[in-house]
Amino acid sequence: MSGRLEGVGAWVLYCVTAAMMIFILAPLLVVMSVSVSDSYFVTFPPQGFTLSWYAKVLQDRDFLDALQLSAVLAFSTTMGSLLLGVPAAFALVRGSFLGQSFLKSLVLSPLVFPALVTGLALLQLLSSFGSGDARVNLLIGHIVVTAPYVVRTVVSSLQLMDINLEEAARTLGASRMKTFWRVTLPQIAPGVAAGSLFAFMVSFDNYPISMWLANSEYSPVPLVLMRQLVNVFDPSVPAMSTIIILLAVVGVLILERLVGLRRAVAI
């Protein structure tokens, strides 16, 4: 009897999971389907099939410049988040000092505060320092909101790793740096990879921070999409969104190729 109940429970879980996935993915599928409509207006279901909107988007200099800016910004943000987040994670896990819990809460606070509030605060802070370079301001702002993702994933990996392997390497004469590269880093690689992916995608698709810190000359993709929605809402906007969705899928596939999704989500 218990086995039958477990079987029924498993089927219920599968059905609920499938319903949740459909609920999450349905809006994305609608956007992708509208992007191939041959109508000049956004309609669903799409009227006909055409890839002309993608051709138009790929010839749009504003979109291509914004895409390039977002890609460079996201890559730079990821590197900055790693340079700050990995040492911070080691300090929080391996260190022992006064106010450690407070520091951990402070480092992870951007995950809790609304992004609009964080963006406004950063705008006021950077303005008070006289920073007028939008590219620098965007980089600083994006690192502030993405570094906590790296800290969180690397902290989890450090807590799960076997520290005895490090001690064995040091006992055999390995230096601290060699121990880190040959022993520690391979064990925390899933956390580093997952944090990097989160940092890249959050930066690439970030609107609230970019809205406050960008200008007319340097506008990332989310701001260009928002302007298109306000000005001319034709299927080229879903085409732009579809390109961004496909880039996100490529990022997930790269993570799976490098470390495996199971290892990345296990942290």
Question: What is this entry, summarized?
Answer:
The chain is an all-alpha fold. The chain has helices spanning 2-34, 52-57, 61-94, 100-108, 115-128, 134-160, 163-171, 176-204, 208-213, 221-231, 236-258, 261-265.
Structure description:
There is one protein chain. 77% of the residues lie in helices and 0% in strands. It is an all-alpha fold and 267 residues long. The protein has twelve helices and no strands. It has a single domain (55-265), classed as MetI-like (MetI-like fold).
Give the percentage of residues in beta strands: under 5%
The third-level CATH topology is MetI-like fold
Count of structural domains: 1
Q: Can you tell me the overall shape?
A: globular
The CATH superfamily name is MetI-like
C-alpha end-to-end distance: 36 Å
Q: How many individual β-strands?
A: 0
- Helicity range of the residues? over 70%
Mean pLDDT, to the nearest integer, reads 78
Name the CATH architecture.
Answer: Orthogonal Bundle
The number of helical elements comes to 12
Q: Runs with pLDDT <50, length 5+?
A: none
**What's the main sheet like?**
none
Sequence of secondary-structure elements = HHHHHHHHHHHH
Q: Which structural class do you get from the secondary structure elements?
A: mainly alpha
The CATH class is identified as: Mainly Alpha
Alpha carbon gyration radius: 22 Å
